[in-house]
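[job 4471] stage=fold_predict status=RUNNING
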Amino acid sequence: MEGNKRDSNSFNIKLNTHDNKIVEKIHNFISRNDIESIFDIHTHSWKRNHLIKKYEPPEEKIQPSMPATTTFFEYECEKHFEDAHVIFPETIKYKFASFGIPFNFYDVKENNIYILKKSQELGLIPFAVVKRDDTVDILNEYAKLFAGFKPYFALTSFDVENMKLKDYLTLSQMEVADSKELPIILHVHKNNFENLREIKRNCDNFQNLKIILAHMGLSFSYSEFRLVMKLVKENNNIFLDTSVCADPIIFRSCIKELGPGRLIYGSDNPFAFIFGKQQSLGLFFKWRLIPKKYRRNAWLLTERNYPWQINDLKNLIQGWTLKNWRNTMTYLILDQFNALIKAIDYCKEKKIMVKEDIKAIFFQNGKTIIGPKFV
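[job 4471] inference complete, writing structure tokens
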């Protein structure tokens, strides 16, 4: 496939023939649904000088082909406009919300200042990355300047296996967000009953608290999303962003069961410009073929290895469903958008949604949840 050799230390986009076919499909979808504007509620931006220490991945995640940490060195706000129009038609009015890179090897404060400054220059919607030790005074100051909060479990020192939701989504964050009517974009550390029940309880207790569950509640297969739907269905203050999810069944189920008003377009750019493939398992998958530590309902396979994943699964899967996995890989944003198109076209055909609902997913739903700070 042409254009298949990519710089492992950048997010530069080089479309091949397979990619271009998906881009053409996206353009056609946008045209036939009269979509004029796209608002992306989930992007990251940062500068090289925000790095405060070298990233050292856990030993079990070190792979021979892992790229250097320069993968994470810089992605400035202006580049979102440039890269979005590689995917979307030039005529699209593109707007995005952005926050920093929420890892503890970056200077969160400086990153937040940068995002705020760029929001004034470029008109992007700024979210503040917040930490568990931020005081109420700090949070109130953020609330004056930013459109919402973005807590993240990786900013804590807790082990993920023993972590609780309250370790990174604090009472103070929720109280301030509730009083100022600001949304919180939340990437849960685990998609499980305990976390989702706690989120529902928090939204029940705080009348104005709006939670946007990133990555469809960390759902990458329908079996995972069923739990999300069950626990959030009755609370209209819980929303889902589409970022990095690439399963049309998940999107279709969300639209049918929760309604299109609960779904908000988000990409996770620039991480969505990683080249790979999200693979869900079929109902009759033979689990005995996969070692226990890798058993889950969906995998994210990437052309290159990245520090947040264990990626030697390729050798295990190559002889199974993804025998020709390289030919099915594309940029994750294209994989995601392709799944959205399949789900929306199905729901439109079944008269579950109309054109205005479709346009709202890509713009109005995000604008509504941001509220007066959407400018």
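[job 4471] summary: Residues 1-10, 59-71, 282-290, 314-323 have pLDDT under 50 and may be disordered.
[job 4471] exit 0
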